[in-house]
Amino acid sequence: MNIWMCENMWLWKIITLFSIAIAKAGEMENEIEISGDLKQLIKRITPGFEENLVRAFKNEGLRYQQSTNNNRNINKLDSVFISVDDTKIELANLKFPWTPDFRIIKLSADLSMLCLDVAFKLGDLRTEGDYEATNMTLQRLLPITSNGRIETTFRDVVIRGKVGLLIEGDSFVPENYDIEYESTETSISVKYYVNNQTEIENNVVRAKEDDIIGSAIWKQLKAILTRILHKQLGESVVQFSITELLEDEDKELREKAKEYTSKANRLVDSLLCSAKDYLVAKSFRSIETPPFNVVYRGKLSEVYQGRLHTGVGYIQDLSTLSRMQDLSFYEDKQKLIVFGSLSLREMKHGYEHFRSQYENIQVSGSIKTTIYENRIFIKFSVLKDQDQHCKTCISAVEVRWLRDIDVDASGLGSLSWLVPKLEAWVVGNLRYTALPVLESYIKEAFEDALAKTNCTALVFQ
């Protein structure tokens, strides 16, 4: 009797495990399906849609170039501050005074997944501005700085990736950009004067991954290019009526679009809730950022130099990390990708204490900065394998957009003429030393959330 019961218990366990395996396999194969009729319709209309989209994109590019050339459009970049060992480099008055030409390598549509596959060639892109370099060790012996003009050229720039389409009314709207920028190498040219009359020019070419100066400028340049691409692509795509394109058979695609959005939002909202709990529990609503110090002069011709240094900085409030718009979603047999943007609803940065000395003047105070617009790109990958298992990981966390930044400094007193310089220093250090710290904390919080969340159930239920 006992032997019979044991055999049946083992049989029951085998049946149970087999049932669970079948259920998991069913979950894994539960990709969003569309009807055969819609598949055939999309297959038939896609070539014409792509051809017309390419034509519209080129026309918008010409129109944009003409309007910007007439208005002499110049894209300005925030100042860049780089610290290498004891050398400080400041790049100021940076400009990208060119209108990029997005030459199409690939512009195809996957309407069933509401995505565009894109690849554009931009060629060489150049920024220009002023530089000032200071060696802090040398400063203790001689008050010497080097300054002049700088041009940074990124060679053979190419954009590749996917653009997620959302449906608004009767139009597609390109909203989420999972794109990568590639460049073969960076060329840096500096010009400065010797004996107040002889101009010297030096050039250096480096591989992109080895170029510290180019990498610092590259972050802002990518944001400018994405903004221009978004405008040009948006003006092109919005020309097409979804109802007319799908020959009045658009109901199913609209329902699938809602389903895609629901899956993407459900996954990220669940992870976001858990990540915010982690940040609050760890007292990471406010995080520390590195201090900075600079050497400055009132004018280039002045003899006296001043110094300013801050204490440890901060960024807050990480508990206000939120999803402000719908995310995008695409899937194939190997993986499922969710991508889009989050934002800190309340983003502040500052330094509780700074001190500055210029000639016989010493001042101290605090710096408070409010960032009113910010976008943080996130990307989650759900990888599938042949054993019907899912592994979810966070593939990217990147602060891609900052705008409307207000810097308020107290305590400058008679050095109030430093305000424009101080604003540039704070924003420059925010971009290149503080934001990487913020990104690392957000990634850490999401990794903790992934360890606690059944992502398979959220995505495939």
UniProtKB/TrEMBL annotation:
Species: Callosobruchus maculatus (Southern cowpea weevil)
Record's keyword terms, sorted: Signal
Protein name: Lipid-binding serum glycoprotein N-terminal domain-containing protein
Signal peptide, first to last residue: 1-25
Phylogenetic classification of the source organism: Eukaryota, Metazoa, Ecdysozoa, Arthropoda, Hexapoda
UniProt-listed InterPro entries: Mite_allergen_7_sf, To_sf
Gene3D superfamilies named among the record's database cross-references: 3.15.10.50, Haemolymph juvenile hormone binding protein
